[in-house]
Design brief:
The protein has 708 residues and is an alpha+beta fold. The strands form nine sheets. Strands 6, 7, 8, 9, 13, 14, 16, 17, 21 and 22 form a ten-stranded antiparallel beta sheet that branches. A nine-stranded parallel beta sheet has the order 34-33-32-31-25-24-23-36-35. A five-stranded antiparallel beta sheet has the order 1-2-3-4-12. The longest helix is centred in the last third of the chain and has 22 residues.
Length: 708
């Protein structure tokens, strides 16, 4: 007899099903009034242990023998902190004695849910776990439709240093070739697999993707919430497609872990949502991120930050160079002044000397305190750059700390580009970092830390573990625990996550940082594609897109720079002290617009893309923020040819409505006004952009008479 369980909130409900002969699976998901059904019993957990395998030969995360043998044991539903609903479904394989507790979590105001699995060895023999899904399910269909694995598009993003967030779409009929597999009565063996290795969780690919089907009227969106190695895949199961998400695996990441009787392992968390449109699914993602992040005052009031590094001091700060910048940053309205790399270095080679974090005496002859006092005298929060997870090979700490404090393989410290990598499982490593933070906060009043991370240590460490991948995973989790403890000890400190720019934009970290640097890209002409696509990975109020206007730039180029950071967490660099009065006035105007127009609404806004997600080489890029009060959108023209100057912006939230559209930045009589016409019937704005130059404008759009 089939048993059923329904669980959810007012926005989404999950309906599970099982009987004595089948594993627990999702029978349907209800989103609003839309019912999505699943017909082929994908188990809620699949796993491999040494000595087990798949029931059909493949390298997939799914179709494992143990997963198929799992049977329902019990379930419990509860509510814990911040009104998060929790469901735990316990299943067990009677043949191996392996028990899995599959947890689902759901915030009150979001249709996205988190899920993870605790695997417990209840047998008398040791087991060696090799892979576990945190989530797996079919694509599904609405009641009036039949499943169709080839009726979807997969949207995924490639990352690289200086080229983050390059989104592209592939139809599943290109990924799933027609095999006539029904003649063999076996499912296909392949999968479209996306993996990340090392600790740059977004170093090559995004741990987030979405699937949409116009034919079926559905959109899936998912993310893996892990700051290390991960894998997601989609595949063809003949009658439907499937998706599966996990952390590290043996085959991809040299990961396995041994469990004795009674021991348990918990997978990395993932989160999933389902909607009928991209806008619906994406809004659920935004709501989820806000509900599940670490509470901090900075979440609701993003500060205007000046940082001395990008295209400016470039790791060479001194008292003489900083004091004029501090004065100029304060004059234009900066709220935070962050001293970047090099402040600790006496040798002139700051890269391999990181780790002790004592201020340089050659760079600051009268002490770092003189510079910090100058920052605070203007009412700005002083900030410092740290790369806490590494020790330079020339740092004194490389000899002070024991070998156990570092990643090791085969008895040697792991070294990457003149850095050793701290293993935060080790007490001495954590104590060192704790003492550094406490000293800098207590001695200098530092209220802002920029945490960088510029190397990745390969597969991991083989010290104290079954595998290098296990050592990596445990270190990743120890780092997250250290961040949580840091927030508890210093709740007012603002933390920025910079990992060679955007190399770690995973939700495990972005949920714990108030600011995320999105790139190290130093060419302002390339940055708009990064800034726009970053909002797929980040909340707008934490998205730190660099603006680095320079005295050598003309007014349009300066405003282009400033527009790149306008709809995010305002992030400024550049030689303000060398600018003329008009140029500094333009920077001040941008910050004034930000603090009066953007800052009050950004933490309640939902991003949108009037031209769709950008391609790297698009000559026109646009992104916007919408709230109940108003919508804002920025348009960048990047050396547009005459044939492309007519641009159609899609603003469907205003279809059928008379609107007022105004330029909010730059809004000066000496700047050319861009011709924009509104077509309310189609909900589109027709814009004529300038050609042959780099220029940008930020607009506000409201209903006539007020409101949105």
């Amino acid at each position: 007899m089939t048993q059923q369980l329904e669980w959810g909130n007012q926005l989404i409900s999950l309906h599970f099903q099982w009987d004595e002969r089948t594993a627990v699976s999702l029978g349907e998901i209800v989103v609003g009034e839309t019912v999505v059904g699943f017909k082929h019993n994908v188990p809620i957990v699949d796993l491999l242990v040494a000595g087990s395998g798949h029931w059909i030969a493949n390298d997939r995360l799914v179709q494992t023998s143990i997963g198929a043998n799992m049977r329902y044991v019990s379930h419990t539903a509860s509510i814990y902190e911040n009104d998060i609903k929790r469901l735990v479904i316990s299943v067990e394989d009677p043949n191996t004695g392996i028990r899995c507790d599959v947890t689902y979590e759901l915030a009150a105001d979001a249709a996205m849910f988190r899920t993870f699995v605790a695997v417990t060895n209840k047998s008398d023999e040791d087991i060696h776990l090799e892979q576990v899904t945190s989530w797996a399910n079919e694509f599904g269909s609405q009641a009036s439709d039949s499943p169709d694995p080839r009726a979807w598009k997969l949207h995924e993003a490639d990352f690289d240093w200086l080229a983050e967030g390059r989104w592209h779409a592939t139809a599943t009929d290109e990924l799933f070739p027609v095999l006539s597999q029904q003649l063999t009565q076996h499912d296909p063996r392949g999968e479209h697999r996306v993996i990340s290795t090392g600790t740059w969780s977004t170093g090559k690919h995004a741990p987030l993707a979405f699937l949409d089907s116009e034919k079926l009227g559905l959109v899936w969106m998912f993310q893996i919430e892990h700051n290390g190695a991960w894998r997601w895949e989609i595949g063809d199961n003949t009658h439907d497609g499937y998706m599966a998400l996990s952390g590290p695996t043996r085959i991809d990441h040299s990961w396995h872990t041994a469990l004795s009787h009674g021991e348990a392992f918990t997978t990395v968390p993932v989160s999933v949502t389902l909607g009928t449109t991209f806008d619906e699914a994406y809004a659920s993602l935004v709501a989820y991120r806000r509900a599940m992040r670490t509470e901090h005052a900075g979440n609701f009031h993003p500060r205007v930050i000046f940082n001395d590094y990008m295209n400016t001091l470039d790791g060479d700060p001194t008292t003489g160079k900083l004091l004029p910048l501090i004065t100029s940053a304060a004059e234009v309205g900066a709220e935070v002044f962050c001293i970047d790399a090099g402040w600790y270095d006496d040798s002139g080679d700051w890269w391999p000397s990181v780790g002790e974090w004592e201020p340089s005496t050659t760079r600051f002859p009268s002490g770092l305190g003189e510079v910090i006092d100058a920052i605070t005298s203007y009412g700005m929060i002083p900030g410092l750059w740290l790369e806490p997870e590494v020790i330079g090979v020339q740092s004194p700490m490389a000899q002070v700390l024991p070998d156990s404090a570092f990643f090791q393989r085969n008895g040697h410290r792991v070294v990457e580009q003149e850095r050793y990598v701290l293993d935060l499982r080790d007490d001495r490593a954590r104590q060192h970092l704790d003492s550094v933070i406490e000293r800098l906060v207590n001695d200098y009043g530092i209220g802002y830390f920029k945490f960088d991370y510029n190397v990745s240590p390969g597969s991991g460490t083989d010290l104290y573990g079954s595998s290098t991948g296990e050592g990596m995973l445990e270190h990743n989790r120890a780092y997250i625990k250290w961040l949580d403890a840091l927030h508890s000890r210093f709740p007012e400190i603002i933390l920025e996550n910079c990992s060679s720019g955007g190399m770690r934009e995973d939700f495990a970290q972005t949920s714990r940082f108030q600011v995320q640097s999105t790139s190290d890209q130093q060419d302002y002409r390339l940055y708009p594609a990064i800034a726009s696509s970053a909002l797929m990975m980040l909340l707008p109020e934490q998205s730190g897109n660099w603006a680095y206007p320079q005295p050598s730039m003309n007014d349009e180029e300066i405003s282009f720079n400033l527009s790149t950071t306008m709809l995010g967490h305002f992030f400024l660099s550049g030689y303000l002290n060398h600018m003329n009065e008009k140029q500094r006035g333009l920077c001040k105007e941008a910050i004034t617009v930000y603090t009066k127009v953007v800052q009050p609404i950004i933490a309640s806004s939902v991003p949108f893309w009037p031209l769709g997600l950008p391609r790297w080489t698009d000559d026109v890029v646009s992104v916007g923020l919408k709230t109940k009060q108003k919508s804002l959108f920025t348009v960048w023209a990047r050396n547009v040819p005459e044939s492309h100057r007519n641009v159609v912006l899609f603003l469907p939230q205003f279809t059928g409505v008379e609107v007022e559209i105004s330029t909010v930045f730059p809004n000066r009589p000496d700047f050319q006004q861009w011709d924009l016409q509104w077509d309310k019937q189609r909900g589109i704005a027709m814009l004529h952009v300038p050609t042959g130059i780099h220029a940008a404008r930020t607009f506000a759009i409201t209903k006539k008479g007020g409101g949105c």
